[in-house]
Amino acid sequence: PLRYTSKVRELGKHEAEKNDSQWKTMGPAKVAVPSPNDFLQKRPKEPKLAPKKNEQDGKRLLPLLPPRTYHPVIHMKKNFISKNAIAVIKGEPKKPQHFCVDTRQGDKYLLEPSGLFPKYIKKKNYGVIPKCVTRRKEEMKREEEEYQASVLEQLKKRAMKALSEEERTNILKALKEKWEEINRAYQTLPVITDTMYKRMHKEKLELELKQLEHDIAAIEKHKTIYIAD
């Protein structure tokens, strides 16, 4: 079979020859020759400082001096000695710092930042419950009361009856006695269950035990139980 030949083969070949022909030269390429004046100098890339300003007519540019008859105006003279003395007399005495010496050589350290100084128990509000905590407790108590009131209102609307503690105890006792009875029957089952009846009887007892355990746990967990009429 004939080999595959691209349709644009001739066009690509023509474009390649056309581009190559522009770079063909006779001899060295004609480029700009560098000037001999542009030679490399020492440290050409460092910033150059601005030229110094020349003095005008040989005189320095200095500020004018005040005349001899000039006297500065002094508004007030302060007596720093008397001022410091008054500040010391009226000022509060510096309180000595508390130190603790723990070695024979006299090594000492500040007592207040060490945690040994009773600084916090001397506060006026030491041991007092913060107002934010008290306010939060009151809010939680009020929310709990509102919730209980809403629950009671819903129960009244649904006409649900709450079990008394005596009825709850009796029901729990009866469930436990029933569980003991079924568990005793379960323990007396034969080890080998080779018949369909034995397997079905064993599964039935297991389901009853599981249901009784669930009911006992639910009653023990909830102190208040409501029954719908």
> Helical stretch count?
5
Got a strand count? 4
Low-confidence stretches: none
The H-and-E topology, N to C, reads as HHEEHEHHE
Rg calc: 53 Å
Mind summarizing the main beta sheet? 2 strands, antiparallel
Determine the mean pLDDT.
83
Strand order of the largest sheet: 1-2
Kindly report how far apart the N and C termini lie.
95 Å
The structure class reads mainly alpha
Organism: Sylvia borin
Region (Disordered): 1-62
Protein name: ENKUR protein
InterPro entries: Enkurin_dom, Enkurin_domain-protein
Describe it for me?
The protein is mainly alpha-helical and 229 residues long. Among the domains are: 63 residues; 68 residues. The protein is 44% helix and 5% strand. The protein has a two-stranded antiparallel sheet with strand order 1-2. It has a two-stranded antiparallel ribbon with strand order 3-4. A hairpin with a 6-residue loop joins strand 1 and strand 2. The longest helix is centred in the middle third of the chain and has 28 residues. The mean pLDDT is 83.
Concise description?
This protein is mostly helical.
Distinctive features:
mainly alpha; two-stranded antiparallel ribbon; 229 residues
